[in-house]
Design brief:
single chain; 181 residues; alpha/beta; Rossmann fold; 5-stranded mixed β-sheet; two-stranded antiparallel sheet; 6 helices
């Protein structure tokens, strides 16, 4: 990798035991199953680890966080938060993990003197505080292809690339350009 190639980190965040709260991890799993990424793209299940992610974040130029975000809109509303929007979201603690992310970004900046660019690909959850379960609500399941598309666009805009993994067995569905075929 040359100095001009940006290192891109995609973090799927959330607690999969709390239904929609785990949507970021579920989207990351789909990305890993369905695509092969260029060498400058790394996908990590960030779970709810926060400051433990300091090293991978500090080694990155661009961070894409996929997560549930509470902004008071209808469940399934998609968000792209960056720049001032990201700061506003962090200030109001709209995501389950934003304060951890903000603290981690600040720690990275203190340690290394630089802060990677960051964006959140988020979605308004429906069920997340009660009924512990591994199941994601149907409204969020239906939005996973759009979240994948948003994440792929962020990867491409940051200088990464990807190719679909061909379906390997009969009956298995392949995701291509916004649609399951």
């Amino acid at each position: 990798m040359t100095d001009t190639v940006k290192k891109i980190l995609v973090l799927g965040c959330g607690n999969i035991l709390l239904r929609d709260e785990g949507i970021g991890v579920r989207v990351l799993e789909k990305l890993e199953e369905q695509f092969v990424f260029s060498d400058n793209v790394e996908l990590i299940d960030g779970g709810t680890r926060g400051l433990v992610l300091t090293d991978p974040i500090s080694e990155s130029d661009y961070v894409i966080v996929v997560d549930a975000v509470i902004n008071g809109h209808e469940p399934g509303t998609l968000y792209r938060l960056h720049g001032d929007d990201l700061k506003l979201s962090l200030a109001f603690k709209n995501s389950f993990h934003d304060m951890d992310l903000l603290e981690t970004l600040c720690c990275v900046e203190l340690i290394t003197g630089k802060r990677p660019s960051a964006v959140i690909v988020g979605i308004e959850p429906k069920v997340y505080q009660t009924d512990p379960s591994l199941e994601i609500s149907q409204v969020l399941l239906d939005k996973i292809p759009e979240m994948i598309d948003m994440t792929l666009k962020e990867i491409q805009a940051a200088g990464g690339s990807w190719t679909p993994v061909p379906a390997s067995t009969e009956g298995e569905k392949e995701y291509v350009s916004g649609h399951t075929v």
